[in-house]
Write a structure and sequence with these properties.
Blueprint (H helix, E strand, L loop, with lengths): L3 H7 L4 H21 L4 E5 L10 H24 L2 E6 L7 H14 L5 E6 L4 H15 L5 H7 L9 E4 L18 E4 L9 H12 L10
Parallel strand pairs: 1-3, 2-3, 4-5
Helix pairs in contact: 1-2, 2-3, 3-4, 5-6
Magnesium ion binds next to loops.
Length: about 220
């Protein structure tokens, strides 16, 4: 979800305002994705490297995470959406951690849809974390044992979409992206619309996935 800052600056507003509007689009866009047949979506809210930004911006974004969970909690339950925050959450204040854990616990029984938020998430972190957990339980790590402990478990993204104009992965799901399709949009995240999502899905549907085979 790149482009919040530039979007706000183009309107003469603060970066914070951009994050606020950007955050308010997440659930709405998730619902559009589910209406189009997508069962699982992960929104990259904050990378490991974004955590090197100034304290005010980091704390503002963590508060947005908290308020958006509070705002949508009953809708998550009513629509049977399993909610999860992935990433290294050790730096979050207890109050926010409790809200995340509560939402995760109350929705873990659902399997209809999955809404994940990646916060202080990095592909490097994910792989190292999985490797550490795997060696605790297995003498030798192989593909299956490592995958089991990744934050996404064995579910890999079919499609990765980045807004904001840059064509890079910025440490997002490095392991899981092995055979993902990619779409890069110039549009800034707060401007994303239902129509953009429909175009993204149409493009995806028109791509032949080969997974290394000849088809
Ligand atoms: C994306 O917006 C949200 C986060 C990384 C937290 P940016 O904050 O990266 O916005 P730009 O790239 O400066 O426009
Ligand atoms: Mg950016």
């Amino acid at each position: 979800m790149d482009g919040n800052g530039r979007w706000a600056e183009s309107l003469g507003q603060s970066r914070q305002y951009g994050h606020q509007v950007g955050s308010s689009r997440v659930y709405e866009i998730f619902k559009v994705c589910t209406e189009l047949g997508c069962k699982t979506a992960t929104f990259f809210a904050m990378s490991s490297e974004n955590m090197n930004r100034n304290e005010t911006e980091i704390s503002f974004i963590s508060q947005l995470l908290k308020s958006s969970i509070n705002e949508h909690f009953s809708d998550l339950v009513n629509n049977k959406i399993k909610f999860k925050v992935i990433g290294d959450l050790s730096s979050l204040p207890n109050k926010i951690l409790e809200i995340i854990q509560h939402a995760e616990n109350e929705t873990k029984k659902f399997s209809r849809y999955n809404l994940n938020i990646a916060y202080n998430y990095g592909g490097h972190w994910d792989i190292i974390n999985a490797a550490n957990l795997a060696v605790l339980n297995h003498k030798q790590i192989n593909y299956e044992t490592l995958c089991k402990y990744l934050s996404t478990s064995v579910n890999y993204p079919d499609l990765i979409v980045r807004t904001g104009g840059y064509k890079r992965l910025s440490n997002f799901m490095l392991w899981q992206a092995a055979y993902s399709e990619f779409q890069f949009l110039d549009i800034l995240w707060p401007d994303i619309s239902k129509n953009d999502i429909e175009c993204i899905f149409d493009n995806y549907e028109n791509t032949q996935r080969k997974f290394g085979l000849v088809k």
